[in-house]
Structures are given as structure tokens and as C-alpha cells.
Amino acid sequence: MSRPDTAMVMAAGLGTRMQPLTLTRPKPLVPVLGKPLIDHVLDRLVAARVRRAVVNVHYKGDMLIAHLAHRKDIEIVISDEREHLLDTGGGTKKALPLLGEKPFFYVNSDSIWVEGAAPALDRLAAGFDASSHDAFLMMAPGVRAVGYDGLGDFTMDTWGRLTRRQKPRLAPFVWMGIQIIKPQLFEGTPDGAFSTNLLWDRAATAGRLYGMRFDGTWLHVGTPEGVSEAEAFLREAARA
Asked: Mind listing the pLDDT tens digit for each residue in 132-185?
């Protein structure tokens, strides 16, 4: 199939863990090395030849909309959640009429990474198989992630099939906020707010939840400390 040329950019979160940086602006506008988080993501999408990005907004949405109006290198379409926050799954479902009927990139607006041997979005697009994948996630090895101290999200077998972490065990892979997902996976999902986890569980039950190992470095920027760690790593990488 042809590679996705449309993306859902998740930018409607409250940014609570990023306070005090988010007291005066939405999290996607928090700068890393002087560039807002969402522009790091949009630059990656432009490089991957994505033509259209649907961006959902909620907290301080007016500020984000005004900022995005300056982007001329990619079409930006706003999915407005300022009245009701719909969570990751519900927000994407609301935006489906804007995304179309083909598989699309889904990217968190706070996902920053240093590329490996080839661009992550290009690798994900090349590896996606609509005949066997309902959701195809880019997975970072937790031990190599910068600023991450969690227990992991998934295990992954030789063929890339994903299985949820079994508590209380650790899992080696962390979802880094990038996936390709089929809109058909949303059929029969509830109206209103729900998490993307519902979709992943549905795909996993059908044996159609897959991942790809990321070969670069993923930077976890969920807190002000995470921003500082990411900036230090990026400066060092630029000097190398």
C-alpha cells in the first residue's frame, strides 16, 4: 500500500506533569533547545513527506492554534476539543472525518528522538502491512531511552507481535508515541472519551498488534527535568 501522507498529532493534554512550564502555555509549546515540542514533531512529519496534520487542541488551545497558523510547509487542520477533552482514543475518533479512510501516522506532540540508521517514520511506513497490522507501533528499548525510568510497556516476539507487560515484571520496550493505525480499528468503539489502550487491546486480541524496534535514541520529555535531560543529550549529539 502507499505510505501514509496524513498524521494525527495529539496535542490536547493538560500537561500537568510539566508544570510549572505549562502554567502559561500548553505542553506542545514548551521549548526544547528553543523550538516548541510540536515543531520538532511537525518537522519530522514534513521530512517524511506527510502533507496534512490533524492536531487536536484543548488546554490553552487558542495559543496553540495561533502558533500553528504560521506553519506553511504542511497543511494543519484543527480538531477542537476545547469544550470536552476526549482522551487519546476518543480524540482520534472525533478527528476521523478529517483523517480519511486510509491508515495514518499517529504521533504524540511531545515525542522527540534522534534518528538511527534511517528515519523512524520512513522505517515505520516501509514495515507497515495493512493485511496483518491494525496498529503498528515504534518501540524504544527502555534501557536506552533518555529520561525514562518506567517499567516498560510491551514485550515483542521475533515477528514483531506485541504483548502487554505482565505485572509485576519489567518489559523491555516502551512505546515512543509514534504509530500507524487503521481507522477501521475504531469501528464499534464508544462515543466520548476513551483511551487508545482500548484499541491496542482489541488489536492484540485479534493478533494484529505489531511493533518495530527503534534503532535511534528516544527522549522522554514528560517533566521539566526531562526537558533538561533532552536538551543536554541533543547538545552532546550535535557535537559528536
From this structure: 999 999 999 999 999 998 999 999 999 999 999 988 889 999 999 999 999 999
100 lies in some domain:
yes
- Residue 183 phi/psi, 5-degree rounding, is -60, -25
CATH of residue 53: 3.90.550.10
Query: What is the Cα–Cα distance from 209 to 204, expressed in whole angstroms?
Result: 5
CA distance 87 to 14: 10
Q: Which residues are registered as beta bridge partners of 138?
A: 212
The domain tally of the chain equals 1
Is residue 1 a part of any domain in this protein?
no
Q: Whose grid coordinates read 524496534?
A: 213
Q: Say how far apart CA 132 and CA 207 lie, in whole Å.
A: 8
User: Which residues have CB under 8 Å from 18's CB, separation 6+?
Assistant: 27, 30, 222, 223, 224, 227
**Is 15 contained in some domain?**
yes
Write down the pTM of the prediction.
0.95
CB under 8 Å to 119, separation ≥6 — which residues? 44, 47, 48
The C-alpha atoms of residue 182 and residue 134 are separated, in whole angstroms, by: 5
At 140, list the grid cell.
524504544
CA dist 28 to 42, 191, 197, Å?
11, 26, 22
SS3 letters across 200-224: HHHHHHCCCEEEEECCCEEECCCCH
| DSSP code for 59 | T
Per-residue cell: 114: 534522534
Task: Show the domain range for 49.
Answer: 6-239
Closest CA to 107 of 68, 150, 148, 137: 137
Output the pLDDT for position 1.
58
